[in-house]
Structures
1.
Amino acid sequence: MSMTEVEVTGAASIDSRAGKYLTFVLAKECYGLEILKVREIIGLMDITAVPQTPEHVKGVINLRGKVIPVIDLRLKFGMVEADHTDETCIIVVDVGSVEVGILVDKVSEVLDIDATDIEDAPSFGTEVNTEFILGMGKANGRVTILLDIGKVLTQEDVAGLLGANA
């Protein structure tokens, strides 16, 4: 493979991360999700707890007759659970063939991030899994952690949610 082919191949993989991201806040840090994975944003509503689910699975909601599992992203990431505020909301996302609600502190805005403004996730050594991070987006003078929601929720999470959703 020539140097030109390597450069073109590398540029193509970086370019695939460019696009629109819905940004939200968890514990004062800014995160982003690919806008095409987002179904809708809803205010906090009653969540029905489901017995024997992991701590980060808060339960299910009834969204216009459809049962949607809800995951507290703070707990999924090992953060401290926070009190809910007027800004706390649920982002309904597509994970494979399943719709899942993720509980976040607040939604910020939709950003259009160019490929040149996205860097790979830093390496923290073998103990820290950064596989679920698409990259680090630089916009509006701050860094946004861009998430691959399909990798944030593991196969076990989705399988468990399908069971709770059945």
Note: The CA atoms of residues 39 and 135 lie 22 Å apart.
2.
Amino acid sequence: MLQILLGAISLGLLWAVMTIGVYITYRILDIADLSVEGSIAMGAAIAAQLIYNGVNPFAASLAAFLGGMVAGLVTGLLHTRLKIPALLSGILTMIALYSINLRIMGKANLSLLRMDTVYTKFEELGLSHTNAVILFGLLCVLGVVGILYWFFGTEIGCAIRATGNNSQMARAQGINTNNMIILGLVISNGLVAFSGSLIAQSQSFADVQMGIGSIVIGLASVIIGEVLFGKRNFFNRLLSLVMGAVTYRIIIALVLKLGMPANDLKLFTAITVAVALSLPVFRSYLRPIKKSMRGESADAVDQRNL
């Protein structure tokens, strides 16, 4: 059982980087960016191909990050310059990246067995593969959270947040909202691709279809993190995303342990996200019931007093 939990934590930390990327577009920019399903596979493909050809795994991971930034740039240009709706822009980029990823890898999947990865240095210190992934993943997550907390406190970062919060007011303050949207998409997809490179090195292979359903996983992690761990301030929100990603992976591991078929995981994730996103509606339905119950109890007290 402990090994299952450690495996879930290690995978959750790697997916946490992707979750933060999804949060930037979904919460900060208020854009549903589906290009992440292609960029996460792109990051895995770039890193795997470079490592396979003898490139340093850290350099390969950096190249994956840069590749994801290019994917985000394309989505941003389609949306802001060509005036294509954000949702459709992401879909177009996602479709294009499928073919591009096949071109990068040369085939549908690429194995990294018995090759050095970013975790090899930690494994040489005597750590198991799972512990090495946890340690390196934790370092990456803390680094990403720290950098983003600093960045979104700068003038440019605040401009991105203002663009997502109220674009008309942001333009009235002289902010070029189109550039801010592009920059947000670039950062988001860069983080998603970086996460893909770490996941590929952890599981020792990259697959062209590994991004399918990743947007739902990211949304599930965002919602779980916000509901369970709160969103009092920006730093707390970033940490809640990490905890949400880890919690989601633990839930999946426990559900599988209880005997749920692996083929039903996508359905379970979709239902989880739908329920989480519908919580405000459920609360609005329950609020009048609670008020009426309180009113009835008050009336009952008055009757007893009479």
Note: The chain has a mean pLDDT of 89.
3.
Amino acid sequence: MGETKKVLLIFDGGNAPGYTAVATSLTEEGDKRGYKVYAAFEGLRSLTGDHISDDRLIRLVMSRRQSWKLNAKGIHTLSLYRAMDQPGSDFRSERYPDFGKPEKQKAAADYIREMEFTHVIGIGGNGTLKGVKCLNALLPDIQAGFINVSVDSDIHGDIAVGYLTGAEEGATIARGLFDDAYTHKRMYILEMMGRDSGKHAIMSGASARAHLIIIPGLKFTGEVLADMAARLAEADHALIIVAEGYEKEERAKLLPERVDAAMYFKGQLMAHGLKETPVRRVITEPFSRYLRGVRPLHIECAIAFLKAFNLYDAFDKGMTQVMPYYLGETEHGIRHFDELETSNTVDPRMMDLIDRFNIPSLREYIRREFKGG
């Protein structure tokens, strides 16, 4: 008999479109290669003993008949045969700050060893990657992998599963407000996801032809704010996208009152001369988290399949501490953990997309602060 290969999938971090696509892809490819696939039912907390559910692990299979047989034996099992493009996740996916404690990491490592796993795969964003690295340091003999799933796509050198869907869904909502603004002569200020990065806001906003896109890291002078307010006063409609991380430190000072990024930016514009009129309203809309529960694009399902194939291929070659990356149909492969870096910065060339009004002081600010001019 061949060596038993038993892989544990750990889904953690914020929910993003494509978690189920990755779970299905890893299960199907694992089945083909002789792996027994399990998922931590509640992410990292299931491994430490802090689980809320009675179940800590769930066996994943493709065949429903196989799931029936295993469930009849008392093995909690789920068939993913038809689950490829489902939104959300069957496994609790959330940030678990306590995993930063060494005693929690040791408890998780002890449990993984007790359950005789030979492989561990983390699925999520940069925080999940850090968790997998901590486990790998305690379990050097267990092969470790990671698949990047996030709306922010915050790991350099890869397009995360969920990023394209997030941009498309965000653009769909933004475009609807653009057309409503045009029809009814309104100013819409729409908050979108992006706690540290502005990539999602820029991609969604530019696709929807937003007039202004405000991202984390921007700190406007009074002159720039006054110029934006003046330009908006001349327009009969506008769509402004504001990433949820914009001026988060300043907004935190306003607690316990909650002021989201869109409301805060509206307040800045009003303080610098923008006025509402009976025929031109300035409306803020929150949309920072609504897109988490949407179905992934089918192209992202294909990317999930490709990443799963490349990851298992690396495992079968004896590799560990690896992440499959995808940058295009002719540019994909494997990167070692040592090569991976967090990237919340926006390429300076993309900054040209944030201003369709061509406001001189704003352009000068971007050139000076972001383009090194």
Note: The chain has a mean pLDDT of 93.
